[in-house]
Specification:
TIM Barrel, 10 strands
């Protein structure tokens, strides 16, 4: 069974922003290119979309031969008041997500500019478990995403989010490169939490600088792809390209995603 491969729209948004454009005004163009290159899905930031917005997004995906699979969000859950507000916002979206075929909501708990206290992490874990339970009842899996803040102090927040929550309610959107950049071993984390991985975000770097496409570099993705294929992994594998100082710019965003798709397929 081939992997379900998609692209995250963050990098696309960077490119349109550099042109002085809002990617939201060009979704049809973007999804047309993604569908034409043979990707299976595209992941967007749920933002302030209401039910109508989510249903319109799902319709746009299907119109370009793409499958609704996952959405991405942030949200503060380290204090009780903020957790209640985040729950209210995200749970409003759950029925539409489920009925339109989205199976995963990838969420990165909001960072706060410093490491969270033990009490804040305890509140966060409880809130994530409650959110995961409510989403599961609606038919959507909660998958925690990570950036570097969660990987500080030997991945203290990252592990707390998972070790202090019910595995049946809180899963993982494992971002391999952010693990690596945060000083953790992404393969060790993958092995520990493999049963909780619902989706993955993949990016690459060379000498620590993001590459413009997925290719050989600082992280060897071959063992990961081998294992995903062998295990029949059904969740979306999301290419998340992005630009930073030093990233080469030799191709356009469409070609970079096409090169990334071909690279992943070459590893399968």
């Amino acid at each position: 069974m081939p992997l379900l491969i998609g692209t995250q729209l963050y990098g696309w948004g960077q490119v349109y922003g550099m042109r002085g454009q809002d990617i939201a005004d060009h979704y049809d163009e973007v999804l047309g290119a993604i569908g034409a290159m043979g990707m299976d899905t595209a992941e967007a930031f749920i933002g302030a979309w209401d039910e109508a917005g989510l249903r319109a997004w799902a319709s746009m995906l299907r119109a370009h031969g793409l499958r609704p699979a996952s959405m991405y969000t942030g949200g503060a859950v380290h204090s009780e008041d903020e957790a209640k507000a985040t729950h209210k916002t995200l749970l409003k979206s759950a029925p539409a997500l489920a009925s339109e075929g989205f199976t995963v909501l990838a969420m990165n708990p909001d960072p706060i500019g410093r490491e969270k206290t033990d009490a804040e992490l305890a509140t966060q874990a409880s809130a994530l478990e409650q959110l995961g339970g409510a989403l599961k009842e609606a038919g959507v899996a909660l998958a925690l995403h990570n950036h570097t803040p969660e990987m500080l102090s030997e991945s203290r927040e990252f592990h707390n989010n998972l070790r202090k929550t019910d595995p049946s309610l809180v899963g993982l959107c494992l971002d391999f490169h952010w693990c690596w950049r945060g000083g953790a071993d992404p393969y060790a984390i993958y092995e520990e939490y493999k049963d909780r991985v619902f989706t993955l975000h993949l990016r690459q770097s060379r000498d620590g600088i993001w590459t413009e496409a997925l290719e050989d570099g600082d992280i060897d993705y071959r063992p990961l792809i081998d294992d995903l294929v062998a295990s029949g992994f059904a969740g979306p594998v999301i290419v998340e390209l992005a630009l930073e100082d030093g990233t080469p710019e030799t191709r356009d965003v469409v070609e970079n995603n096409r090169v990334s798709l071909e690279y992943l397929r070459s590893l399968m």
